[in-house]
Write a structure and sequence with these properties.
Distance between the termini: 52 Å
Structural class: alpha/beta
Pfam families: Glyco_transf_9
Largest sheet: 6 strands, parallel
InterPro entries: Glyco_trans_9 (IPR002201), LPS_LOS_Heptosyltrfase (IPR051199)
Oligomer: single chain
Number of strands: 12
Organism: candidate division LCP-89 bacterium B3_LCP
GO molecular function: ADP-heptose-lipopolysaccharide heptosyltransferase activity
Keywords: Glycosyltransferase, Transferase
Shape: globular
Radius of gyration: 21 Å
Number of helices: 14
CATH architecture of the largest domain: 3-Layer(aba) Sandwich
């Protein structure tokens, strides 16, 4: 095996996408134990890579997608680092430029028109419909890595854990605290607030403490859910992503839409119940793991369409609160 000293991983995407790359990061480090692995990510998801022992440096990409000058400036900084291997997990013009600028002898990416010129090797046997974490491994095949793993991971910092322990103690939250994440990056993935309120009321009747989590721009929507509830619930304080990971790690389970929060919960070992509509469960849910279940309304022609806009939202409206409650009971995680 040729001696390599530095590897660059590139993924400019959302929170969940970065979390779902952690299995590939772990396997890559096991294959090259003496190599320093750097990871380029957007500033927000870069937070959840903190404390990951498989990474040498996390490099935040601060520019907007349409900032061409910023992409060239950032790529020049990578040029000075002189990598041996680069792996582009996204394949946009900006990430292809970064890969090319890395000066790596081996540059792996997707076989896309024009952008393929930035790479020396391409993904092999990409398969759609698989759990997304497993699809990352098609980009490791050109490196001779055949092993595949689906377990995602976040290494919660001691500082975040201490903060959450204090929050739980100050508020009297216990091990029957259930988190609800009622928002998603795409509005079409959001279940109805009144249905979340009904599930929250049921959880309260089962002796659970309900905790509504939120992120930037989501507080107003969460307060709407809170106002619709008959019984009391807590609204979480503002959190960083690492604090959110620590918070979810302390909860009994998470009920949520298909979102980055769901993937954070999976990565810290917290059971999840996800309401799906336009997103495909097989792509975003670990296969065969009873700790992670989902609900969706079947027999809808456009189910799992993957669209970002919709004028009827039938797939979300047809999921009743009774369906979600029944599915939670079948998980048997509240007893």
């Amino acid at each position: 095996m040729p001696e390599h000293k530095k590897i660059l991983m590139i993924l400019l995407r959302n929170i969940g996408d970065v979390v779902l790359t952690t299995p590939a990061t772990r396997v890559l480090k096991a294959h090259y134990p003496d190599v320093a692995i750097d990871f380029v990510a957007n500033p927000a998801p870069a937070q959840i890579l903190e404390n990951n022992p498989n990474l040498n440096e996390i490099i935040p990409y601060p520019y907007k997608p349409d900032d061409i000058l910023g992409a060239f400036r950032f790529s020049y900084d990578l040029f000075k680092r002189n990598y041996d291997i680069s792996i582009d997990f996204l394949g946009t013009p900006a990430t292809a430029l970064m890969s090319l600028a890395s000066r790596a002898e081996i540059r792996v990416g997707f076989n896309l028109r024009i952008r393929r010129l930035a790479y020396t090797h391409f993904d092999q046997n990409y398969k759609s419909g698989l759990y997304n974490a497993l699809t990352k491994f098609t980009l490791l095949k050109p490196l001779g890595i055949e092993k595949e793993e689906s377990r995602t991971e976040i290494f919660v910092t001691e500082e975040a854990s201490t903060w959450v322990d204090r929050i739980f103690q100050d508020n009297g939250w216990n091990d029957r605290t259930v988190a609800l994440s009622t928002c998603a990056m795409r509005d079409v993935r959001c279940w109805l607030p009144e249905r979340y309120a009904e599930v929250a009321n049921w959880l309260n009747s089962q002796g659970c403490r309900v905790l509504l989590t939120w992120g930037p721009g989501e507080r107003e929507y969460v307060e709407k859910v809170h106002a619709l509830m008959k019984d009391s619930a807590e609204i979480s304080p503002p959190t960083t992503l690492m604090q959110l990971a620590a918070l979810l790690q302390k909860c009994r389970m998470l009920v949520c839409n298909c979102s980055g929060t769901k993937h954070i919960a999976v990565a810290v070992g917290t059971p999840t119940m996800t309401i799906h509509g336009p997103s495909e469960p097989s792509v975003w849910t670990p296969s065969g793991d009873p700790k992670h279940a989902y609900v969706r309304a079947e027999n809808i022609d456009c189910l799992g369409c993957g669209e970002s806009d919709c004028d009827h939202l039938t797939c979300m409206k047809d999921v009743s609160s009774e369906m979600v409650i029944d599915a939670i009971q079948q998980m048997n995680v509240l007893s």
